[in-house]
Target: Lipoprotein
Amino acid sequence: MAVALVAGSLASATAACGGERKPVRLSGTFEKERPRDEARGQQLTERALDLMRAKHSMRINVAQTKGSAAGGTARRQEVTLHVDRESNCTGTVEQGIMRGDMIMVQGRTTYVRFQDSSLDALSSLARARGPEMSAQLERRVGMLRGKYVKFPTGDGSSGKRVMPSAQCDLDELLGNFDEVGGTTTIRAQDSTWRYGRQVIPLVERQDGTVTTVYVAAEGSPDLVGMEMEEPGGDRTTMRLSDYDEPVEAKAPPAAQTIDASELEGLGGGAGLFEV
Model:
């Protein structure tokens, strides 16, 4: 999404009463007046971004699909996070067959609990690889059922398994929008019904990529969602909701957690669930 800023100025000259008439001088930058849909698209985009940057918390759902379903190469991942400016967040993560619930508390510690259906699917894959792989993974699965894995946060430089805190840092997430700018055209379309509410689509086309941003049609134009279609067929969707709602991020009871370090040295490679 890009925002093109249009600036113009007009200086008027005055003539002193009874004195010499001064020539009219014009200075500034003049650009062709934008079509109504472009001007409205720019105004709504800027307003929606300003509103979003002022929020203390929000729920963000991002789903990405890459590859071709027809060609059997489609890969999908989805993340839903309710996050605030204190780096608290709760949500779910899904990639391939793995799906888990995540809690991060003040950007310091992350807890992930993998769902039983994901662990069952992983066990099936391991059995297909032979008894040795199956035995290694079953030990991990047995330790994890019904438990949260406790990860420290960091950048991974220590060599230990950590979770990046940036994913739950709302200031950093919103900072990605600071680079919005450029000269592409955003057009506002007529309001329509989407995501269970009236919205105004803002459409941008650039280099074969079509991005549609949806802002609320009633009340303040808060960002509601986004859809992006790329030339190769890759697709990204984003939903935004629960603005300024408190994030309930609490560490689970110790009896329901297992430290990530306890999973080290169980074989099967460096990945937590390498099959």
